[in-house]
Amino acid sequence: MSSYGTLIFFCGKMGAGKSMLSASIARERGAVLFSEDEWLAALFPGDINNFNDYISYSSRLKPLLRTHVEQILMAGTTVVLDFPGNTRKQRAWFKDIYSQCQIPHELHYVVADDEICLKQLKQRQKEQPERAQFDTEEVFRMVTGYFEPPEESEGFNILMVERELA
């Protein structure tokens, strides 16, 4: 039996708290954390001005990281990927990473209603003004239109995380 690390990734609406949860889990487990937002900001500063830009640059980033993530997992270190897994297509990328070598995985599904997400987005606008143009109700509604909750038939080890209004 090999001693691979565990691949941990997330699903949840925009503003549900996926990034906060990913950072917390990475600290608790001594895992390597990869944040899509941080990588995109570092590699493509000022180039992401709308949702289509995000899709384009995100699709360029994922192949770069995939091999590195696999190598870290195969070396026995847990990896937390703070990348959205909010559609079947996005989740397929995670499955590609872990399935070939049968690496353990966890999909944390952060369940939060729209009211909670919008409240957290307003707070994030204040705390991270550089993201304010994307953390709007209009963008939230657009992105949420594509959201697909994970289904058992997809074959993931799903851990539900329920968020409530504070």
Automatic annotation (TrEMBL):
InterPro entries noted in UniProt: P-loop_NTPase
Keywords: ATP-binding, Nucleotide-binding
Gene3D superfamilies recorded: P-loop containing nucleotide triphosphate hydrolases (3.40.50.300)
GO MF entry, a single one: ATP binding
Highest classification ranks of the organism: Bacteria, Pseudomonadati, Pseudomonadota, Gammaproteobacteria, Oceanospirillales
Top-rank lineage group of the source organism: Bacteria
Protein name: ATP-binding protein
